[in-house]
Design goal:
alpha/beta, seven-stranded mixed sheet
């Protein structure tokens, strides 16, 4: 009986610790709720891969997920023009620097930086693996409001039942074609939506100021999405 009670107490203790280690959004991202940014400027991605074109394609996918989170996001087309004119196309020089100019010129409360760390295509296996880090910094205080990184496998495999060896061969060919056709925009959209899923809601969302007690996700995540 004593052993049973001891085991039960151990299980309860482990459960309590695991529950207490799960942070809420307000605990994970306190500065988001203190500053309450309304407007976001999306910075050109920092591309650490050998795929030069990934930067522009990925940049165009950031607008929608941030808008859907309830933020006013400056048009990527307009801001890109400004970045190129003002020699701000290389976000590397700003990610840890002074951002006050973006608040003064654009009126942006925060700037979203993305760093594309990996981009691997496996046509045969039907996978696009994208590694991206997201950092949202205040243009007023320079403080990091949100930071999260993801290694996301975009599953583009195609499978149909039956067909034996011939069916398997057809599936393999179809998967290779599908993966080759799944461009950086599609992969970028899926990666953004998944990793930014726990970004606290902005003013234009019905969840604004109601999600503070929601559980926060891990700072680094690995996942496969379809």
């Amino acid at each position: 009986m004593k052993k049973t009670n001891l085991l039960l107490m151990t299980i309860i203790a482990v459960f309590a610790v695991s529950c207490s280690s799960t942070k809420t959004l307000s605990e994970q991202y306190p500065a988001m709720y203190e500053e309450r940014p309304l407007t976001i400027a999306v910075m050109p991605p920092i591309n650490q891969t050998t795929h030069a074109e990934a930067k522009d394609y990925f940049y165009s996918t950031m607008y929608m997920p941030l808008c859907e989170k309830g933020y006013y996001v400056y048009s990527p087309l307009l801001t890109m023009e400004m970045y190129q004119t003002e020699s701000a196309y290389d976000a590397e020089q700003f990610i840890e620097g002074d951002l006050s100019a973006f608040n003064r010129i654009l009126g942006a409360d925060a700037a979203m930086f993305t760093t594309i760390k990996s981009w691997k295509r496996n046509n045969i296996g039907g996978k696009l693996t994208v590694g991206v880090e997201y950092v949202l910094r205040s243009t007023k205080t320079g403080e990091t409001l949100y930071k999260r990184e993801g290694l996301i496998n975009v599953d583009t495999s195609i499978s149909s039942s039956g067909g034996g060896a011939l069916g398997a061969l057809i599936n393999l060919a179809a998967t290779a074609i599908s993966t080759a056709a799944t461009d950086k925009v599609v992969a970028g959209r899926k990666c953004n939506a998944f990793v930014l899923s726990d970004l606290p809601a902005g003013k234009y969302s019905y969840l604004y100021d109601k999600d503070q007690k929601n559980p926060a996700g891990k700072a680094y995540i690995k996942a496969t999405v379809k």
